[in-house]
Amino acid sequence: MSSDAPHPILSAAETQQLVEKAGVPYIDVRTPHEFAEGHVPKSLNVPVALEGAAGPHDHDKLEPNPAFVEEVRKLFPDTKAEVIVACGAGRRAARAAALLSEAGYTGVKVFRDGMKGWTAEGLAVEKPGA
Predict the structure, then answer these.
(1) Residue 20 burial by CB count (10 A; 0-12/13-18/19+): exposed, middle or buried?
(2) pTM of the predicted protein model
(3) Strand (E) or helix (H) holding 43
(4) Does a structural domain hold residue 29?
(5) How many domains does one find in the chain?
(6) Cross-strand partners of 70
(7) Residue 49 domain flag
(8) What is the pLDDT of residues 73-114, one digit of tens each?
(9) Residue 106 phi/psi, 5° resolution?
(10) Catalytic annotation on 57?
(11) Where does residue 71 fall: left (phi above 0), alpha (psi -120 to 50 degrees), or beta otherwise?
(12) Among 3, 11, 42, 119, which is most exposed with the fewest C-beta within 10 angstroms?
């Protein structure tokens, strides 16, 4: 676990350990469309950005989700609770972690490699209907 960043940065192995063994919630901040294509088992989808008119695959056109912190707060009202945030490769997760910290969350950890790192390690992926 790296502590050079404002939030602890986790590897795939550390993330898997925390989610599977310790039950730390994994918040996937990708869009619902991306989440539906495959996600970490037991993860929750709370998008930090939403698809704009450009469609689901134009990540440069994503619009901030103004309800992101409110949605997380409904799921996890305890701002001291540990949570892991992740996206596809790290950029949106860093933004989500910053937003949660600004809202008073102190147990935020970032899975630096997101779904790209998870699948590269050959870890289990859950897909709806599969």
Answers:
(1) middle
(2) 0.90
(3) none
(4) yes
(5) 1
(6) none
(7) yes
(8) 999 999 999 999 999 988 899 999 999 999 999 999 999 899
(9) -110, -10
(10) no
(11) alpha
(12) 3
